[in-house]
């Protein structure tokens, strides 16, 4: 019984992790201050 339980726990944990990886990220990727300034500069040149 213990061996079955342990195997099931491991499989559940792996399935849970895989499911979490497939979920869309709720937060956006961090953009550094320098990169933000650079992107704003590019936008202002085009605008």
Textual characterization of the structure:
By secondary structure, the protein is mainly α. It contains two helices and no strands.
Biggest sheet descriptor: none
Low-confidence stretches: none
Task: Give the helix/strand class.
Answer: mainly alpha
Tell me the fraction of residues in β-strands, as a range. Answer: under 5%
Backbone shape: rod-shaped
Mean pLDDT reading: 89
Measured between the Cα atoms of the first and last residue, the distance is 68 Å
SSE ordering: HH
- Individual helix count: 2
What's the short version?
The protein is mostly helical and 47 residues long.
Descriptive terms for the model:
single chain; 47 residues; mainly alpha
Explain the layout of strands and helices:
Layout: H1 2-22, H2 33-46
